[in-house]
Request: fold
Amino acid sequence: MNAQDVVVLKEQGLAEARQAATLAEVEAVRIKYLGRKGVLQEVMDNLKAVPAEGRRDFGRCANELKQELTVLLDERKTALAAAEKAAGQKQFDVTMPGAWRSLGTRHPVTQVIEESIRIFSMLGFTVADGPDIETEYHNFDALNTPADHPSRDTQDTFWLDNKTLLRTQTSPVQIRVMESRKPPIRIIAPGRCYRRDTTDATHSANFHQVEGLYVDRKVSMADLKGDITFFAHQMMGPNVKVRFRPHFFPFTEPSVEYDFSCHVCGGSGCRVCKNSGWIEISGAGMVNPKVFNIVGYDPEAVTGYAFGMGLERIAMIKFGIEDIRLLYDNDVRFLSQFS
Ligand code: PHE
Reply:
């Protein structure tokens, strides 16, 4: 090997370095020429065998090989690293899974409303609506609730002024529907109600009811019992029992309160039903003829039933929720359980 051979090796190395297209290829050229068992080392091993007069030239060429190749490899490395970085910023991997956005869940009260609409629509009911801010007339007078009735007390009702209030029940929707339509009527009206109740595990100042009203020829108490029982079985399952107790409401006669057997314990008694085995759902009854007179229906021609339903109560026994306040805290750890 002479100096000329070393120059050839150097040119070879420089050419390979220029051709290297990736950082890995640059590194491979470096190892091949400058590595511990590389070309340069081989050249140096040959130095002893070079005749004395050619040794200086040989040494200089070997040095140039090392210098020039090192400089070029460094340049290539910097340039390729910059190019790879720039390319990486523009490209993205279309096969990568997308960023996951968690979906919300429907609130348990919303689920019970939607389920109620589904069940009653099977019986031919449609949905009616009324305002949360009601007149004294619709919430009380037209429902045959006299001015001295305890529910009109400011202790129980949020009055906005002398004549307007936050509705204490969904029953005023009965009046609004009968004022604007002729029988037959078959509606349910889900919505918010407001009462001045102190909040505890089973009471809230803001709660929900579904009102039901069925007016036609020959509607009877048997229809009421049958339809409520059908609803209970659809909503809670075929094993739930329904019980009707005599009660009083000014706008129904006769009136009942009705209970579902406790879904949580199956009727044997637990915390949710306060050991009674029954949960009170709300009131119902046959529409009072006085109400028909007020809205201009002929009480001799039609009869009707009406009912209310406490939606939070239903949600609590359906899902086994022990405290009504959980329904209003909107804690995602609670809400996400009802997907
Ligand atoms: N509105 C009554 C209440 O809130 C329930 C009810 C509705 C009673 C319809 C009879 C008929 O307690």
Notes: The radius of gyration is 43 Å. The longest strand covers residues 206-216. DSSP finds twelve helices and nine strands in the chain. Residues 169, 171, 249, 252, 255, 282-285, 306-308 surround phenylalanine (CB under 6 Å).
